[in-house]
Specification:
Low-confidence stretches: none
Shape: globular
Number of strands: 25
Radius of gyration: 24 Å
Order of helices and strands: EEEEEEHEEEEEEEEEEEEEEHEEEEE
Length: 317
Amino acid sequence: MKFLSIPDDFAPVSEAVIYTILPEDDDPVTEVTVKELSDNRTVARLRFAQREIITLDIAPFLRRIFDVQPALCAGSQPLYDTSRTKIIVVEANGTASDARIFSLFASDGLPRLITTAPAERTLGTGEFDDAAFFAPDGGNIFLVSDSGNRTIPLERRYEAGIVRISESDIHPDDDSATLIFSSAGRTQELLYRRTLRPRDSVRVAWLSASGAVEYYTFMRQKHTITVDKNRFYGSQGYQTVSADKESLLDMVSDYEPRHAIESLEEIVSSPRVWIVNGGLFTEADVLSSQTVHRFDNGSLNSVSLRIRTRKRGEESL
């Protein structure tokens, strides 16, 4: 049994991930097993009969095991993020390939911040943002306030990770802070500005095309709540057994430049969207089939969306 070709490290699962296997002449059946090494989980098991050469694309199987959630980390600490990279071994009749790291996001192998959102961002009181990064050869991350009061060194190697930036990380005497990511001679920056939010603002998180969870705060235009009560009539009259609550949120963004609008438009097609309330995330459905734009002299746009959240037997956001 011989592997004629295997993919390169950090190949994205959004594209074909091809293995080519040469079976032994005396093996009428070749059993191929795809395993994830982090928890020794079998991702797929296939059988091939009487093949001279086996060509197998494992990308459809790998895409099912990527379950990206908002990072569960507190404070501005680097977190290794196993939801965006997986270590995989393919075995054919007991013969194992070399291990390979596959990625949720497309990569040219160069270190970078993983995002489709603009490099300049705002944080209101109590808000946070997750900066996802890819650093195959290690790197350093620093958060520097205007006066240089705070830094966060990344002290170990991460292939993919997250740093959570909170509004409270910006020094009280400063209005902004810059996250500096450097690896292999490349440097990228994200600028975070402190801002005041209206009371009726809504923080939304979504899985972007880059494979990162992005954040943005919208203005609430309308909030409609529908309650579906399950009731029965007994000896004491009508009684409510349970109540399901559905919330419809109509919201609009600030006026933004084109590159920011393009990032927000991804919310409509994103497979995962959440409403963020403090540290709590509520899964949401985007009912809009398209974004609605409002124009300001042709230079700035805003985006309008309708989002639904549901909770059974308890209060909805």
